[in-house]
Specification:
The chain contains 3 helices and 8 strands, in the order ββββαββαββα. Strands 1, 2, 5, 6, 7 and 8 form a 6-stranded antiparallel beta sheet that branches. A two-stranded antiparallel sheet has the order 3-4. It is α+β, with helices and mostly antiparallel strands and 168 residues long. Helices cover 21% and strands 39% of the residues.
Length: 168
């Protein structure tokens, strides 16, 4: 129902899906929201709604348009006792709760690895139906000794780069 994690690194992400549900992966991906894997720089990409605002108008007008989605990828420790790491991504409706979480670190002037964070989902019901929404909140601020432990893990992973691969 919920994960207790320590976030080591927060990376902006962009993904463009083709719209074909049989595709196994995205048409274009950017692990830094700057360099796309297929279409080059995100800032000038025709599928980026920040670079091409007409996409949002077309979508509001009911047209089916491909839009590059913005989100975040977290490098996190999902088993505090063992120190095992995982990648966790949020996009779409998960971006707002993620930004709310990020602002707590900024306001306190603390790095993400200085808190124990609870990641969960909550069932919402409205006129559109039933669906789950992403929740993220600081469960506890860590003391200096615990923060030092996760700072060392962050430093060890600071040069990590993600890459895509196909599993045969």
């Amino acid at each position: 129902k919920a994960l207790q994690v320590v976030i080591l690194q927060i990376s902006p992400t962009r993904l463009l899906w083709s719209g074909d549900l049989t595709d196994r992966g995205p048409e274009c991906a950017s692990r830094d929201a700057v360099h796309g894997s297929t279409y080059g720089l995100c800032a000038t990409c025709d599928f980026n709604p920040q670079a091409n605002p007409s996409l949002l108008k077309e979508r509001r007008d009911g047209l089916q348009v491909k839009i590059c989605g913005y989100g975040y990828t977290y490098l996190l420790v999902d088993d505090i006792d063992q120190g095992s790491m995982a990648l966790f991504g949020v996009m779409g409706t998960g971006v707002r709760p993620a930004k709310t979480l990020h602002s707590q670190f900024v306001q306190k002037r603390r790095p993400p690895f200085s808190a124990l964070v609870t990641l969960s989902t909550a069932l919402e019901k409205n006129d559109k139906g039933k669906y789950y929404v992403f929740r993220a909140e600081v469960a506890a601020w860590l003391d200096e000794a615990a923060t030092r432990r996760w700072r060392e893990a962050w430093q060890g992973a600071s040069g990590v780069q993600y890459r895509e691969f196909e599993d045969d």
